Amino acid sequence: MSGNETTTxxxxxxxxxxxxxxxxxxxxxxxxxxxxxxxxxxxxxxxxNYLDNGVPLRAREWIDAAIARDYDGAAVRFYWAxxxxxxxxxxxxxxxxxxxxxxxxxxxxxxxxxxxTRALEALCELLGHLDVPDRDPTPALEKLRSLPARQREQxxxxxxxxxxxxxxxxxxxxxRRTAERRRRAGNRENRVWAYFQPEPIRPRAQYPDPKGATxxxxxxxVLASAxxxxxxxxxxxxxxxxxxxxxxxxxxxxxxxxxxxxKTGFEWRYRxxxxxxxxxxxxxxxxxxxxxxxxFANQVDHAFQYYAHKYAPKEVDRSVWLxxxxxxxxxxxNEVVELYRESxxxxxxxxxxxxxxxxxxxxxxxxxxxxxxxxxxxxxxxTRAWCLSxxxxxxxxxxxxxxxxxxxxxxSALASVLIAVITGRVATFRWCYIxxxxxxxxxxxxxxxxxxxxRQTAYQRWKDKLAATCPTEEEMETWLECDRILLVDEAxxxxxxxxxxxxxxxxxxxxxKSCKRARVNGGPWRYSKYDLQLFLITAEGxxxxxxxxxxxxxxxxxxERGHFRFDAVSSLxxxxxxxxxxxxxxxxxxxxxxxxxxxxxxxNFEPASPDEPGLSRISLDATGxxxxxHVLEGISAEGKAWIQRDTAATQQNNPVPFGxxxxx
Length: 664
What we know:
alpha+beta, 3 domains, 11% strand, disordered N terminus, disordered C terminus
């Protein structure tokens, strides 16, 4: 492609499109937690954390606050200078900021000799080279290379946009090797996923319904029992008026087999009812009112389907597994919906529980105990036989008792029999219900305790795994920085450029479509996928390289390149929509308008915390938006003259060397 041709690079988020967020989470962390009342040491530490994690704007604020309270030293000044220079070119520094940097040699003279003092001296030597571009950079580079790796890498990283092309050219090979080495360090591919996992919500289980018996039901059962006992006693008294061996034996037999029939009948009835209840539960008919298919319920439903397919037993037909467990999965799905369907709860927070439930169902299914309740509540044949036998014998004995009693006192006997039949029926049903509910609740309470113990164990296991796996903020920023370095390296190799050929460069870093995002309290949003658009500015024009970065796997996808002359840039328009959306519209004279979404509207479910002011500003600072805007606006406004004018302005604002010689 010739240098006079203009090509366009299509950004993943095209004109009029929106950046979709699959999920978003805010993790609790104290890495950025500080208040105005905290001691200066804490403010300094938080400032360094912000700097290490790619937010130099906040770093400057807190380190400045620590210095204002007389917390000073070589290390403090070192990080203060890096915070001032990070993600900014030397051209972007104001006259006041350059003056403050020019005072560093005076501070160095007051510090005792240490590795931090020597790091400050090396930094001043590099800045002195910027003031006098024709100055030999060899002494500055030698001093930089003599530093310990910790300080040297910090300077190279945070002064990325400050170092001149000649100085950076000599450091680029080492920078690239370091990025290649650290890009996948710390088991990145198996850990980044945990950063975008939500905080799991605590386990819950459906507590058994303790409805039991009402006071009225207890009263009716007791009164019916009392009347039954009175009527049976009256029959016994009548029989004693003219006692015979047959009548006495029949009466005692009636009482004995009646008690046996009541006991076995209750057992038979209870088991039958519990079996029907379990069948309805495992058929998915329980809590059917929880089945709407939209919103949270729909997401829970999709999660159950996903894990049911993912964790299907491998050695059996999947259709059989899905068919036989459909009912219990529906019941469990409805339970989760009922337990967690509340305001501002996202399905991601209960995925751990859904996964645990599916795995538990699979375990029971594979061990052939999923339907063990059928055996548990099957009424034994002996119980049925005893119940039926007792009823038959009881009816025969009762007939003999009634016959003998009627012969003795017809009216009293018939009245007692009538009362016994009516109250016996009422007492039997009332006591069956009361005792059945008591037994049901006891069994379900034990089952509830077992479920809660299993779910609590799964919850703690998942939390421990996340805590052990989740990378730190510093690791996330380091990996992302390495990815950006390798993107630049690919562009330099493709266009066959060296750093001495690069006048300025910038990377527009935006979230990709259908990505996940997360952050810690007080920190910037981080995304699982980015659209990275690199602009390399040379004396002849602008080179572009656009790729999508998969942060979780550390891989690039897509490959869109282009370049254009300075005079091909027609305009750059910045559209700000509220506090959380910025759009760059880059228009070429002979090409379409390039629309780049820098940030997207807030979509988090939780409102911003009052102790996290300026979240949008923090996130923009982390993306390097200010520098990108400075470069693109300069090109669109003045073209090639911008480079020449800004270079001249730099030398005019700093007519004398940086002054490191006086410190030496």
